């Protein structure tokens, strides 16, 4: 057994005697206790003063204030990533809590799965590290040096678990403030060895480590003298290191300790710093390390490995209590309770903490000397007496009992003064049952829930949530203007004309009337760019939109930049201006290896709306042409068609007209899709919707493509090749419509086919598929809508219910996806059917009237063979559509035409026509279909009178 120095003999003997009485095998326990005491002695005797801390511990912060006020050091060595130190200067302009951050958007040395890389070190006022930083910044004669590993080694030594980062979901927006960043902290003492932690909590009547620490350590050492505080922290740190940590965590800690001691020794040697002039602030678990580099009494140094070539950016981001608790897996309310305890003990002791935004004054109460006391008497006496009951604790508990009842009343609970008394008594009872000298906040919280919680929650908050609010609640930090990156400062400057408080953490409303204040148009551009880059959470348009060709008149916005300041700061890591970040995002999306032509066109459209850069738009448009030429499939043809059509319509309204790249895209797309038509019709993997997108592109933009030099023969060849061996009903509907538009197929042939389908019980089940093709055709051939109405009318009029009803659901499912297209069909049906129900009594569909008239006219033609074949067809067309001819003749100046049923009289009448009338008749005979349709549009009412 190792024999300790005399200073710890008494304590060692007491611990060993206890081990012999209570342990079944005292030898291993005695060895462990001896090792713990050896660690305490080792850390206490180190020439370089070690200040052990626990993360966000008010006792550590309070002891730090005492130590710095009593004996200011020349150098403060702090356990934080050394390359984060340059960011601390900007803390003067911030409202805590905030976090120091290192960020890297890309790296060749680390896996792309964990990109982007981010490290945060949250700081609160009730933390020892902040008190040390604030002291050093207020006292230039004290040098502050961060000595922990650089952020690059955080990912080299312990890469984050990608799956864990992706699967974690925060419970609130505030908890997501750090995003997927890796958190680093000063003085983490939470056990990572699950069995040890479970045993510790089970035997202490506590639910989590924060409660154990608050009850058994925090309240015990917060008002202890300096040497006692150090020795207790050394003892607990050694215990957690030896029993509470996993082997992997110990190895990482040893690497960090070698790094820190090497950095300190090099700095002390280079600057000729004596050990007694410096102080080393580190986690209690690092205080008594076993690495060779430990202690300034030897010259052992570690060979620090090389960093990667990753380019790191540094700054500050807002943080919150909820984000810190979530980051380091503390129970909700832990940091707010620490803040409350910190303020209470500052008031009790008369100390004044160091703050960067307040004038520092010496505390009212003179601090006791921290001259070294007898190590033996200090630590032994502290461990063998219970903590004294502070009067401030009782006053605080009474205030909590009164305040929680008031909060409960405001939130709909039936609570009274009697409940306050019950909560106080229950808190005392719970503390006694849990072997505590005084109720803790956790006891008070349990007592309040027991006494006030009812069978239901009257409003939004239950008693647990009210306790969290009462005990401190959440707090969100703010980064000041001077500490923001250039991009964020630029955003604040450009939005200044709106006269809203951009630093406020509440929703700000901005109203803009551009007729009265045209100078606000640049602010609108900034807001739309922020909305595009950061979504609705940061800025949300309430009134107004941004689309191609639109001109804003009025806009209303909700602005939450102050509440979600981190998102603006993160943009600052991508560029120095919104325009630069926007261009990078658009290019990244467009030039991605997975990008399709439609994706590039979307980026092109966005560049018009938000970037306002002709150069960028042209670059993206040319890349879209390149991708279109490379595509061998037509999977995104519908999206390409919609976006190109929208862009063409937009550019036609601009003074400069169509740019060169859009003209090139139209001509390239016309030839490209015409060539791919046979392949698309034959490929089973190509859907009818995709083919409809191709045909929509071809026919909608055909006039523009032909004017730019394209040849229609390529389309004709492609359509003829597509008809070979095609059996898919939906694709047949698309093909037949295309052939009808190109005059390669007559409508009568299609009508005869469907008459046979409707009358055949075996074929009628495929009718919805055929119909699907014709409905898709409405996007590029709206005139086919009349024929579709005819087909549906015949179907419902002739097919028996026993056949129609079984496949009617299939028909409805086919029609459902075409809600936009069906608008054309509905308008056509409305123009053919009577407006009122009474009109259906003697109503005969237009397609039904045509058949007998055609037969009669054909008989007349056969009886009078004096006319040739072309004349017979022209006469047949004229007598089938007399209303159109009358209307068009009147439009040209001929008041009324005389129609002769006798063929001979009609011929004689033709000889008596004037020269003007002969030209009119010649024009009608040459283009009967076009003029018939045109006449119907001009004077449909007169057509009904003539017919």
What about the largest sheet?
4 strands, parallel
Distance between the termini: 122 Å
Rg calc: 42 Å
Helix content: 55-70%
CA-based shape: elongated
- Could you tell me the strand content as a percent range? 5-15%
The low-confidence parts are 1-7, 162-170, 359-377, 851-865, 902-913, 939-947
Query: What is the overall pLDDT average?
Result: 80
**How many helical elements?**
41
Total number of domains: 6
Number of strands: 11
Description:
This protein has 947 residues and is an alpha/beta fold. It contains 41 helices and 11 strands. The longest helix has 25 residues, at 247-271. The radius of gyration is 42 Å and the shape is elongated. Pfam families: DUF5682 (PF18934).
Core attributes:
single chain, 947 residues, alpha/beta, 6 domains, four-stranded parallel sheet, four-stranded mixed sheet, 41 helices, 11 strands, 55% helix
Strand and helix layout:
Layout: H1 9-22, H2 26-44, E1 49-53, H3 58-70, E2 75-81, E3 98-104, E4 117-123, H4 128-138, E5 143-148, H5 151-157, H6 162-167, E6 182-183, H7 194-202, H8 209-221, H9 226-243, H10 247-271, E7 278-283, E8 313-318, H11 321-327, H12 334-349, H13 375-383, H14 391-410, H15 417-433, H16 441-452, H17 463-470, H18 486-494, E9 508-513, H19 521-534, E10 539-543, E11 554-559, H20 565-572, H21 578-590, H22 597-611, H23 614-630, H24 637-652, H25 660-682, H26 688-700, H27 702-707, H28 713-722, H29 729-741, H30 747-759, H31 767-777, H32 785-798, H33 801-815, H34 822-832, H35 846-863, H36 869-880, H37 882-892, H38 903-911, H39 915-926, H40 928-938, H41 940-946
